[in-house]
Amino acid sequence: MTSRGNARIAGFTFLLYIAAGIASMVLFGQATGGEGVVMPGRHGAVSR
Questions:
Q1: How far apart are CA 34 and CA 1, in angstroms?
Q2: Interatomic CA distance for residues 20 and 32, integer angstroms
Q3: From CA 40, how far away is CA 48, in angstroms rounded?
Q4: 47 near 37, Cβ under 8 Å?
Q5: 3-state SS class at 5
C-alpha cells in the first residue's frame, strides 16, 4: 500500500474516531442527565 493510501485510511479512521466520540458524549449525557428522576428516599422531593 502506498503512503497516500495509508494517509487516506488514517484520515478516515481519525474522522470516524471523532464522530464516535461525539456520539458517545451525546448518548452518555442523555443517559446520565437525570432529568425528571426522583432519588429514592426523598419522597418526591426534587433533586438538584
A1: 49
A2: 18
A3: 14
A4: yes
A5: helix
- Read off the C-alpha cell for 48: 438538584
Q: What is the pLDDT of residues 10-21, one digit of tens each?
A: 999 999 999 999
pTM for the model stands at 0.57
CA 30 to mean position of chain CA atoms = 9
- Position 35, amino acid: E
The one-character DSSP state at 8 is H
C-alpha cell at 38: 426522583
Residue 38, amino acid = V
- Grid coordinates standing for 30? 442523555
